[in-house]
Amino acid sequence: xxxxxxxxxxxxxxxxxxxxxxxxxxxxxxxxxxxxxxxxxxxxxxxxxxxxxxxxxxxxxxxxxxxxxxxxxxxxxxxxxxxxxxxxxxxxxxxxxxxxxx
Length: 102
Fold this sequence. Notes:
alpha+beta, 5 helices, 3 strands
């Protein structure tokens, strides 16, 4: 059965900086300081983007002393990947379907 793709996840990944953050977190768990160094973003800007990623369920936090570490939730990306795979399979199956114009 075809499921719909979560629009919050698509929106969260639709921003180039957020996609860069996700790419960095796919390699390792990083704190805000690391992410600022890697992206060159200002802390307030980065914090806003991390909030969007957290609210979309893509990242989770881990407090460590005075730092907060961010970790990617691979199961969320895997679920999104599965939803896109379903869409692709549906599109392949529907390639010959064409609705007549009135």
